[in-house]
Amino acid sequence: MSDVSRETSERLHDYARLIEKWNPRINLVARSTLQDISDRHIRDSTQLAALAGPVTGKWVDLGSGGGLPGLVAAIHYADQPVDFHLVESDQRKATFLRTCSRELSLGRVTVHAARIESLIPAAADIVSARALAPLPLLMSYVDRHLKQGGTAWLMKGENWQDELRDAQAQWQFRYDAHPSQTHQNAAILEIGDISHV
Questions:
Q1: Which of this chain's residues are annotated to bind S-adenosyl-L-methionine (predicted)?
Q2: Sign of CA dihedral 166, 168, 174, 176
Q3: What is the mean pLDDT of residues 136-154?
Q4: Which of 11, 61, 122, 151 has a 20 to 30 A CA-CA distance from 46?
Q5: pLDDT band at residue 1, thresholds of 50, 70 and 90?
């Protein structure tokens, strides 16, 4: 990743090694994709930082799992005034996320070992999610935790257009679909101005 600072590149490398170390015990990523972790997972999540541009405030990553994309975004914004809140209900994965934030010196990361719907609404400037839930359900989580005027960045697979149509039957929102640079026919949805139909 030649377009990032040396410190960011080193953190991303160290993060990849942590995933490789922990993955046999708690299955953070599919075993078949572990050999290609930098391209398949980290570069995929890095797209968010490029799309979001300069940000400040509170970023909430829903269903963080192994830290994709939330921890990767936190690495990219490590020197910026952004507080990251990673929400992961699996206690083992939450422990992994805390270990990563400590070992990678990410002082502005907080891990919430809780269910998304049980957390107090976060009033986040940014909400992100990757491979978490179908868009109609995901919109209810985003609506709960995104503040008025905030932006959601949702990484969706090749069926994103069908999911979008289903979501529009229940929700009103503005969106832009950004083509994924790493997965053919996938998209990153930039969503705001959410209201229930």
A1: 63, 68, 116-117, 130
A2: positive
A3: 97
A4: 122
A5: very low
63 is in an annotated binding site: yes
Q: With DSSP H G I counted as helix, E B as strand and the rest as coil, what are the percentages for the chain, rounded to 5?
A: 45, 25, 30
Q: 53 among the known binding-site residues?
A: no
Is residue 1 in a domain?
A: no
Instruction: Note the pLDDT of residue 131.
Output: 87
Residue 50 lies in a domain: yes
Range(s) of the domain holding residue 151: 6-196
- Segment 101-105 shows an average pLDDT of 98
Tell me whether residue 188 is annotated as binding.
no
CATH number, domain at 101? Answer: 3.40.50.150
Instruction: Say how far apart CA 96 and CA 82 lie, in whole Å.
Output: 21
Query: Is it the case that residue 35 has pLDDT exceeding 80?
Result: no
